[in-house]
């Protein structure tokens, strides 16, 4: 019996969940993540069934000096949830979502996806702010920020955390919240998975839906400058209930889009108004009336359906490479630079998006959580996606070019959830002035740097 086989046998005896080795059936599926560019081969994968399994697996990794990674949704573009030649602590089976509709609270397991959470909460007309692709893991998204359709109204996902259960480097299971391990709670909200392994989270819920009003309006990419000028003026005065993104993309081959437009590069204005329908229609009428769009749809839609609306544009197994900025505003220089930089969109699934911030996001002090970039008006992401048969080098170079062109107009910050593999050392950009405090908290709970910063 090899050393690895012996290790699998020993660890398996400690867990309720299963341990998968490289010769086991299902290994390739278990090591695969959303970004098909990630092709790593761990020595073993421990599929944990609960917090006790997590404690045991982390202890095993430390005992044997094994490198390890932590997987929840496996949707991070950098692929940090899987490692080579080490141990993957896989939480993806810990999907329990328990809703208390009276108290408007949800307890969410670390393996739950946005779709799992929305399914349970929307049954009661409730929601909490999360992202835009339903297969994304709740835990990873929340610990890094959590920007989505409801964030201007209710804050980031991390702003709605009430408490977090976390396994620390020394194997303790702690509950961190405002009144218990408050320093750890501060750091987890925006610090990512750099201080421990989160096993469950408790969220505050809000009354949302089940219907919201959605606008999807698409203009030719050649009209980019004019559309962005309109977008800048439009979003400057909208209520918190409305969030609008400007998205440079190709129209996906799916309903409700006409077949004649499938694959056409466009600049789209995608908006969600989560307030009363009458107010929503009035607020969104300007988007529908502007210019000469190729397609304009303003309609009520189930919130849960909106949350799945971008899934087809980000399929599992495609190749992805991302870059990001924060923008203070969209002045003439920024708009002109972006219009010059994006004259094409290489890659089948490539999107460059301006995500509106402000509202409740900006009303939280930058030092209230580890997430520091509260004053930014917009997040800008270049999210390239393509099939393996397409030209990777060309697409990566295009992403770097667009990102570089916008750098002089940006704040210098980067959204933690959008950091790709080559950006993992840009801690100052990710954490800003909160980095020193984050390091001090980490020293308290992880003095041996078991979890990399």
Provide tags for this entry.
alpha+beta; 18 strands; 453 residues; globular; five-stranded antiparallel β-sheet; seven-stranded antiparallel β-sheet
Describe this structure in words.
- The longest helix has 15 residues, at 392-406.
- This protein has 14 helices and 18 strands.
- Strand 8 (161-167) and strand 9 form a beta hairpin.
- Helices cover 29% and strands 24% of the residues.
- The relative contact order is 0.12.
- Helix 7 crosses helix 14 (435-445).
- The chain is an alpha+beta fold and 453 residues long.
- It is globular.
- The two termini are 36 Å apart.
- The chain has a seven-stranded antiparallel sheet with strand order 15-12-14-13-17-18-16.
- It has helices at 3-14, 27-31, 51-63, 114-122, 138-144, 151-154, 182-191, 224-235, 277-289, 303-306, 332-341, 392-406, 427-431, 435-445; strands at 19-21, 44-47, 68-71, 87-90, 97-100, 105-109, 126-127, 161-167, 173-176, 197-204, 206-207, 211-220, 242-250, 265-273, 295-302, 319-327, 351-356, 378-386.
What layout of secondary structure does this protein have?
Elements: H1 3-14, E1 19-21, H2 27-31, E2 44-47, H3 51-63, E3 68-71, E4 87-90, E5 97-100, E6 105-109, H4 114-122, E7 126-127, H5 138-144, H6 151-154, E8 161-167, E9 173-176, H7 182-191, E10 197-204, E11 206-207, E12 211-220, H8 224-235, E13 242-250, E14 265-273, H9 277-289, E15 295-302, H10 303-306, E16 319-327, H11 332-341, E17 351-356, E18 378-386, H12 392-406, H13 427-431, H14 435-445
Parallel strand pairs: 2-4, 3-4
Antiparallel strand pairs: 1-2, 5-6, 6-10, 7-11, 8-9, 8-10, 12-14, 12-15, 13-14, 13-17, 16-18, 17-18
Helix pairs in contact: 7-14, 8-11, 11-12
């Amino acid at each position: 019996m090899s050393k690895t086989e012996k290790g699998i046998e020993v660890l398996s005896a400690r867990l309720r969940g299963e341990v998968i080795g490289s010769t086991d059936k299902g290994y390739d599926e278990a090591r695969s993540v959303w970004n098909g560019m990630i092709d790593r081969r761990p020595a073993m994968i421990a599929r944990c069934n609960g917090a006790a399994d997590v404690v045991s697996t982390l202890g095993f990794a430390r005992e044997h000096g094994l490198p390890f990674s932590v997987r929840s949704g496996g949707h991070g573009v950098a692929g940090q949830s899987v490692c080579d030649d080490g141990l993957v602590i896989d939480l993806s089976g810990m999907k329990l979502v328990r809703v208390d509709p009276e108290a408007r609270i949800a307890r969410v397991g670390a393996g739950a996806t946005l779709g799992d959470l929305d399914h349970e909460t929307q049954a009661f007309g409730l929601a909490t702010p999360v992202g835009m692709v339903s297969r994304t893991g709740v835990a990873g998204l929340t610990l890094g920020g959590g920007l989505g359709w409801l964030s201007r109204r209710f804050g980031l996902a991390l702003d709605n955390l009430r408490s977090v259960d976390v396994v620390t480097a020394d194997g303790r299971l702690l509950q961190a919240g405002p009144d218990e391990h408050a320093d750890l709670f501060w750091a987890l909200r925006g610090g990512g998975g750099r201080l421990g392994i989160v096993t469950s989270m408790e969220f505050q819920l809000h009354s949302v839906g089940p219907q919201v009003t959605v606008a999807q309006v698409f203009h030719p990419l050649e009209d980019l400058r004019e559309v962005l000028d309109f977008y800048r003026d439009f979003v400057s005065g909208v209520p918190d209930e409305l969030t609008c993104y400007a998205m440079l993309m190709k129209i996906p081959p799916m309903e409700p889009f006409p077949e004649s437009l499938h694959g056409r590069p466009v600049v789209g204005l995608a908006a969600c108004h989560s307030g009363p329908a009458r107010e929503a229609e009035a607020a969104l009428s300007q988007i529908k009336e502007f210019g000469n769009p190729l397609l304009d749809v303003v309609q009520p839609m189930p919130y849960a359906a909106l949350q799945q609306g971008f899934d087809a544009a980000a399929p599992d197994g495609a190749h992805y490479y991302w870059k990001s900025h924060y923008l203070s505003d969209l002045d003439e220089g920024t708009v002109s630079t972006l219009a010059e930089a994006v004259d094409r969109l290489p890659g089948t699934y490539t999107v460059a998006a301006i995500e509106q911030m402000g509202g409740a996001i900006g009303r939280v002090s930058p030092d209230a959580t580890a997430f520091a970039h509260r004053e930014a008006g917009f997040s800008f992401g270049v999210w390239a996606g393509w099939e393996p048969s397409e030209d990777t080098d060309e697409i990566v170079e295009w992403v770097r070019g667009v990102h570089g062109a916008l750098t002089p107009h940006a704040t210098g910050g980067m959204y933690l959830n959008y950091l790709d593999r080559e950006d993992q050392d840009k801690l100052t950009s990710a954490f800003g002035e909160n980095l020193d405090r984050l390091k001090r908290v980490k020293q308290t709970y992880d003095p041996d740097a078991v979890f990399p910063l």
